[in-house]
Amino acid sequence: MGNTSSMLTQYDIEEVQSHCQDLFEQQEILSLYQRFCQLDRNAKGFISSDEFLSVPEFAMNPLSQRLLKMVDGLNFKDFVAFLSAFSAKASLKQKVKLIFQVYDSDGNGKVSFKDIMEVLRDLSGTFMSDEQREQVLSQVLEEAGYTNDSFLTLEDFIKVFGSCKPEMDVEIPVD
């Protein structure tokens, strides 16, 4: 399932579909496999950070360095699982879980005020001052019953940010 000369069997397709909670149709998985093989330039069976950065949309993303920690070394099945959070069929919980992982850069299962501030800084750049970011974040946390000293678990994160209904339905280029 890893190199460009192999084809996916029906079993492979069904296994990937099951791994991704059937969020992709068979044809979509075949298209994603073609894209995976294009990115896996050395036919190693996984995609490196450098190969991900060859996708202009990914490289230009202000969160690309955080995302790279999540995607470096993904095999095809995990590549599709990662992309499934961007599917229009993915649940809000699946999308918020991906966002949580972006914020939880050290992977400890908790997001701190500092973690959220770093992401906000990456996203807003010079458009907002640190003081403005702190003020907005403090207000959001306070309204949800948390303080700047709180550490948010995934469940807490869903409680605080799950009602924001993030727009993550993006078109995934497969050609």
Automatic annotation (TrEMBL):
Provenance organism:
Brassica oleracea var. oleracea
Q: Name one GO molecular function term.
A: calcium ion binding
Presence of keyword Phosphoprotein: no
- Enumerate the UniProt keywords alphabetically: Calcium
- Residues annotated as domain EF-hand: 27-62, 91-126
Q: Which Gene3D superfamilies match?
A: EF-hand (1.10.238.10)
What is the protein's name according to its record? EF-hand domain-containing protein
Pfam families given for it?
Answer: EF-hand_5 (PF13202), EF-hand_7 (PF13499)
Entry keyword DNA repair: no
